[in-house]
Design goal:
435 residues; alpha/beta; BirA Bifunctional Protein, domain 2; 2 domains; 8-stranded mixed beta sheet; 5-stranded mixed beta sheet; 15 strands; 37% helix; binds adenosine monophosphate
Length: 435
């Protein structure tokens, strides 16, 4: 049998592919990225690219040694000498903050807004919306403690989602407080759960020691029943005065700007470096437990990575889950579309000339050309298969007079256009067509 792609990965396919699935259309993937780029760069964000693999130590410190990601889901690349080895990155933030510190980006105007996108890797149990290679769009604001930064980041996430055309995505907003708040809350959880140790799942027994906050995030039904039974007081109600004031400020801005969100006291986030504002983006189309995205403040991260204390925050959404949500809502992302012109010669002598004209048209519009002479009927058929707007015919008579016959495929109308006017005529037609 021919070789197949690894489990938990996908091929994003071009339109018309026989095995194409709505959530894995390359054109939809591309459109999500284009929309994200437009919206995010309007906020002043700059693009950054970091490696797909990083030091194991970076991921451990960045994501947290007690997280499921580090404990169970790392793709180790190889071991080299006696340092901890490399891993395929499971998320984007740790790499971006490392790059910020390593490359002296502090010197740039602060706060610095950065965005990136690319594949992330987690050795997950694969099912709907949970893959081993998936893709994220990441947005980070580094260098500010202001509640305005938190509110701006949440608002931008909402704006990307809205621009994509998603109507049923909801932001769930909470705060995980400052470190002291989390420590006090962890002590409270330990005290609460220790007498019920026997009832906890194996994972949660382990969490009780390492990081009791994570018990609240448990996927085990038994754990969740115990959490209900014990009437665990939410962290949001145990914030210290500073974190509480910061959170109130964030909410005030969002309310004033009309950014919709649901308050969610249960948000704890799976990653260790978050503090204060934390949020998730949810959509019922991808399952109750599966978020489209998440974000939050991570003021402690830069220090954790060995740099000077640097406040920051960011968010990420998974492109696959966004595509699943779009599919569930029946939203069809605008496709890049076929060429404006499909041009072919009617005889061999003019094949090269047709190609040259198509290359010229590309300065202003999308154009393709045939690699050999075709009959008119074939030209129209090929043009239609490619979704072209115009079919262009170049016979020897036309070549002598310096014109191309353009047929508008939808209406069937034909006209002749001078070689020199071709690019402009097609660019103009493209604009009119979009209007
Ligand atoms: P996280 O870094 O875990 O907060 O994940 C951020 C977003 O990435 C999630 O909301 C998902 O949209 C996406 N994501 C995380 N893990 C996976 C996965 N295994 N497969 C697909 N998408 C994922």
């Amino acid at each position: 049998m021919a070789l197949q792609r690894p489990k938990g990965t996908h091929d994003y396919l071009p339109e018309g592919s026989p095995k194409i699935q709505a959530a894995f259309r390359a054109s939809s993937f591309q459109t999500v990225l284009q929309i994200a780029q437009t919206v995010l760069e309007r906020s002043g964000a700059q693009f950054i690219v970091t490696p797909l693999f990083e030091e194991m130590e970076l991921v451990k410190r960045g994501v947290g040694g007690s997280s499921d990601i580090v404990r169970k889901e790392m793709f180790t690349v190889f071991y080299f000498g006696d340092h901890g080895g490399y891993v395929l990155r499971p998320e984007g933030t740790a790499g971006v903050v490392r790059a910020y510190l390593e490359n002296g980006l502090k010197q740039l105007p602060s706060p610095l807004k950065l965005w990136t996108h690319g594949p992330m890797f987690r050795a997950e149990n694969v099912h709907q919306g949970r893959y081993r290679q998936f893709h994220q769009v990441d947005y980070e604001i580094i260098g500010s403690e202001s509640a305005l930064a938190d509110a701006e980041a949440v608002a931008l996430m909402a704006q990307v989602v809205e621009t994509l055309g998603l109507k049923r995505a909801r932001i769930r907003l909470g705060s995980v407080g400052d470190q002291a708040d989390r420590q006090a809350y962890s002590a409270y959880l330990r005290e609460l759960f220790t007498p019920h140790f026997e009832q906890l799942s194996d994972d949660s027994r382990d969490r009780l020691e390492r990081n009791p906050l994570r018990i609240l995030d448990s996927k085990s039904a038994g754990d969740q029943a115990l959490i209900d039974e014990l009437q665990v007081r939410p962290l949001l109600e145990a914030l210290g005065p500073e974190a509480a004031a910061h959170f109130a400020e964030v909410r005030g801005y969002l309310d004033a700007w009309g950014v919709a969100y649901d308050l969610d006291p249960s948000i704890v986030r799976g990653l260790d470096y978050y503090n204060r504002t934390a949020w998730e983006l949810h959509h019922e189309g991808v399952g109750a437990k599966s978020a489209l995205g998440g974000g939050g403040r991570y003021d402690g991260l830069a220090e954790e990575l060995g740099g000077p204390a640097t406040p920051g925050l960011g968010w990420a959404f998974g492109i696959e889950r966004v595509l699943l949500a779009l599919e569930a809502e029946g939203v069809n992302l605008l496709l890049a579309g076929g060429p404006q012109l499909y041009l072919a010669a009617l005889d061999n002598e003019n094949v090269a000339l047709a190609a040259k004209l198509a290359l010229q048209v590309r300065s202003q519009a999308r154009a393709e050309f045939a690699y050999r002479a075709l009959k008119p009927g074939q030209i129209f058929r090929e043009a239609e298969r490619r979704g072209a707007v115009y079919a262009g015919l170049l016979g020897s008579q036309e070549a002598e007079r310096g014109v191309v016959t353009l047929k508008h495929l939808k209406s069937g109308t034909q006209r002749e256009v001078l070689f020199d006017d071709l690019a402009e005529a097609l660019a103009e037609a493209a604009v009119l067509e979009q209007a």
